[in-house]
């Protein structure tokens, strides 16, 4: 009987010690700088809203951006924003902006109508500097460069994406040698929410 009592007592003490130890452990903080935080927070303020846009620059002219252009700040957390970009009835694109602890990442999640991933998906870039509260640049990351080279799009290796966020407008811009594309969205008037993007 005494042995059973001692065993139960030891188990209780061990359980309490384990609980106290677990409470003392804290996850490492997700660090960030002021300009990245300000940029991220301005976008997060739009969470749950959708806005219509227009192509402002498309040089040289490309296909695939015909129809109504809509961005929807659909899902937001303290570290990630998911922003589907709808082009007419094409719901394949979602921009994903993530705090990484080393800056901000921009990824392009491309899906097919059945929800499966396109061969060219999750390409994008990462900030290399502080940027500004209203503007951040994302030069192509190594994964993207290797993906473009593998799929025959070597001209895209030098891609730089930029996102601009101001009180009345949001802009998405792509530049590289010989190519510029920019779409501007009017933030002064929210519109009805678009369908769920493919795969989500």
Written account of the structure:
There is one protein chain. With 200 residues, this protein is of the alpha+beta class. The chain has one domain (34-186): Lipocalin (Beta Barrel), CATH 2.40.128. It contains three helices and eleven strands. Strands 1, 2, 3, 4, 5, 6, 7, 8, 9, 10 and 11 form an eleven-stranded antiparallel β-sheet that branches. A hairpin with a 3-residue loop joins strand 3 (75-76) and strand 4. It is globular. The protein starts with a helix and ends in a 14-residue tail after the last strand.
Task: Describe the structure concisely.
With 200 residues, the protein is an alpha+beta fold. The chain is built from 3 helices and 11 strands; from the N terminus they run H-H-E-E-E-E-E-E-E-E-H-E-E-E.
